Amino acid sequence: MFNIIQLIMAFFGSMGFAFIFNTKKDILLPTCMGGFLAWLVYLITHQWLANPYLCGFIASLFMGIYAGIMARIYKKPTTVFIAVGAIPLIPGSGLYYAIYYLLLQNTARSLYYAKYTLIFASCMSAGIIFINILFSQFAKQKD
C-alpha cells in the first residue's frame, strides 16, 4: 500500500513540476508518466538491490530510454521529458538533511548526507548521459 501511495505521489509531484515548467497540455500526461515509471523502476530495483546508487542509475537509464522514445513519438525535445521525469528521483531528503545537520554543527552527519546526495545525483546524471549517447549514436547510424 505504501508503494502505491509513493507512485501516486510521484505522478502528481511530476505534474506539479510540469506545470511550473509550462509543459504543453498535449504532453502533460506522458511527462508525468515518466516520473511515475522512473519511481516504479527505482522501487522494483530497490527490492532486489541494496545499493541505492545502482537503483538510481538503473531508474535513470529507464527514464532516459522513456524520454527518448516519447521525444520521438511527440516530436518534442528529450529535455522536456527528462526534466519532469527526473523529479521523483532527485535526492531532496539527502540535501535537506545535509543542510540540517550542517546548521546543527554535526559535521559528520552533514558530510554523510552530502556525500549520499552527490553520489546519487552523479549516478542519475550518468544514466541519463549514457542513454543520450546511445540515442545519438543510433540516430547517426540511421542516417
TL;DR?
With 143 residues, the protein is an all-alpha fold. Helix content is 83%, strand content 0%.
Layout of helices and strands, plus pairs?
Layout: H1 2-20, H2 28-48, H3 52-74, H4 78-85, H5 92-103, H6 107-142
Helix pairs in contact: 1-2, 2-3, 2-4, 3-4, 3-6, 5-6
List keywords for this structure.
143 residues; mainly alpha; 83% helix
Average pLDDT figure? 94
The Cα radius of gyration reads 16 Å
Q: H/E order of the elements?
A: HHHHHH
- Please report the number of helical segments: 6
How many β strands by DSSP? 0
| Spatial gap, N to C terminus | 47 Å
| Unreliable sequence segments | none
How much strand content do the residues show? under 5%
Largest sheet: none
- Based on secondary structure, the structural category is mainly alpha
| Helical amount | over 70%
Shape, principal axes of CA atoms: globular
Written account of the structure:
This protein is mostly helical and 143 residues long. The chain is built from 6 helices and no strands. It has helices at residues 2-20, 28-48, 52-74, 78-85, 92-103, 107-142. Helix 2 crosses helix 4 (78-85), helix 3 runs antiparallel to helix 4 (78-85) and helix 5 (92-103) packs antiparallel against helix 6. It starts with a helix and ends with a helix.
